[in-house]
Specification:
The protein is mainly alpha-helical. It has five helices and no strands. It has helices at residues 3-15, 18-26, 32-41, 54-67, 70-85. Helix 1 runs antiparallel to helix 2 (18-26) and helix 4 packs antiparallel against helix 5 (70-85).
């Protein structure tokens, strides 16, 4: 992902603009730094707003688990559990 797009992602996360966050994640090739930014910055209280990302997160789950730290992996797992239990 280009640096400019990562800045847009960080700004959207900081602003709580989860629709824009979802658009950025869905429409860009996410590298591990971008996944790290998303998983660290997402607001788990509003987990339902991330529902459009469920498939993309599941597709990248193993790679994320291999390359990111425990904190980010745990946040990803919490999001996945919450989204899957409320299908």
């Amino acid at each position: 992902m280009e640096w400019k797009t990562k800045v847009e992602l960080a700004e959207a996360l900081n602003d709580g603009d989860n629709k824009k966050v979802c658009d950025i994640v869905l429409n860009n090739d996410m590298d591990m730094q971008a996944w790290d930014m998303f998983l660290t910055g997402m607001d788990l209280r509003n987990y339902e707003e991330y529902r459009p990302l469920l498939g993309k997160i599941q597709e990248n789950e193993l790679e994320i688990m291999k390359k990111l730290r425990l904190k980010e992996v745990m946040r990803m797992n919490i999001l996945l559990v919450k989204l899957e239990e409320n299908k």
